[in-house]
Request: fold
Amino acid sequence: MDFELKEEHRMLKDLVRRFVEDELLPLEPEVLRRDMEGKGVGLTAEERAKVNARARELGLWGLDAPAEFGGHDLPLEAMVGVAEEIGRCIINYAIPPDSPNLHMLMGVATPEQTTRYVEPYARGDITAAIAISEPGAGADPSGMVTRAVRDGDSWVLNGRKIWIGRVAEADFTILMAVTNKEKGARGGISAFLVDRGTPGFNVLRQIPMIGGRFTYEIAIENLRLPASALLGREGEGFAPMQKRLSVRRLQMGAWCIGMADRALAMMCEHANNRVTFGERLADRQAIQWWVADAAMKIHASRLMVYDAAWKWDQGREIRTELSMIKVFVPEMATEVVDKAMQTLGAMGMTKELPLHAMASMLRWIRVGEGPSEVHRWVVARSLLGRGKRAA
Ligand SMILES: Cc1cc2nc3c(=O)[nH]c(=O)nc-3n(C[C@H](O)[C@H](O)[C@H](O)COP(=O)(O)OP(=O)(O)OC[C@H]3O[C@@H](n4cnc5c(N)ncnc54)[C@H](O)[C@@H]3O)c2cc1C
Reply:
């Protein structure tokens, strides 16, 4: 049994940490200032180009993309270390290409789709969004009603999607729709590839979210797509979509560890320096317990994330582990960030420090990619369903 990252993966993690410290953290104060103006926590095109250029120089590009497309083919075991370091900074940035859609596409794309979408995506030349959620179906995507009906050599789609990230700027979107109402999630939901600007794929509005994010609402009105836009087999879109969600859930767990670890470091630094009533905060048992609890829970979370990544790389089923992570780690990080805010007093309440942005991001992470209640349900069902006692 080995609970450490492999040496080469640890070296990669260290490199990403330096990249975050040198390239992203210096931009954070300006990003936080822009967020106060309602502009979100993204980078400007100019900043992104500069950061991307540096990432490329350092070889931090296409990390889990296939070698045939210029990537490094790294396993998730390596990628969770990368995500942990990226999670330290509140800026909305992913080293291209963003992993989850890549994993979904790679499993099912046809040779033509590989040339047109997967290869440029894997090379970080184009970006993608995924549209699953609808006004009437979020936590339970099997309830989606957006319909795709075959019409000769084409598909005609109608429906509505909401809370979709990046869709206005993404080069293409993976759009989930019902192709067989009776079968639903068991053979009746398919995935389609839609290029930005395709007539009938109408971005209605941008929705400002907490944590400096934006999502969009989309109306799909007689969207006509060629047969070649079907991603994977008809009716079999749900399983690759779950694979995509799994990769994001693991990544979110790692981001949360990065955030919690940074908040703990801020808490320790402040507690060592601030004196109240003649004593350092670090000498107060209340604060010591917050520090100890945070360190223990971060350690436990890291083991959970490494364990799941390792099992994934072995090809093992990790649905229950992922649900445990999706509940435990964001709730752990929420608590740690909250304690750090309390330790810093009024400073912890400012919008100039990243803690409030972390708290907001952690708040939406507890809903996005499946709310905590649904993941608790998955964990409980996996135990109760096997006739085991939950204790
Ligand atoms: C910042 C952000 C970005 C997002 N990006 C995308 C995106 O790019 N693409 C996309 O398709 N979607 C995206 N989403 C949508 C996200 O996946 C959904 O919001 C999420 O799955 C929950 O769906 P819902 O909002 O409809 O909540 P609902 O399904 O209405 O659930 C509401 C609440 O009910 C409770 N609940 C639901 N089911 C159960 C249950 N079985 N047991 C107990 N309690 C339950 C939970 O507390 C839950 O929070 C994003 C969301 C956010 C916040």
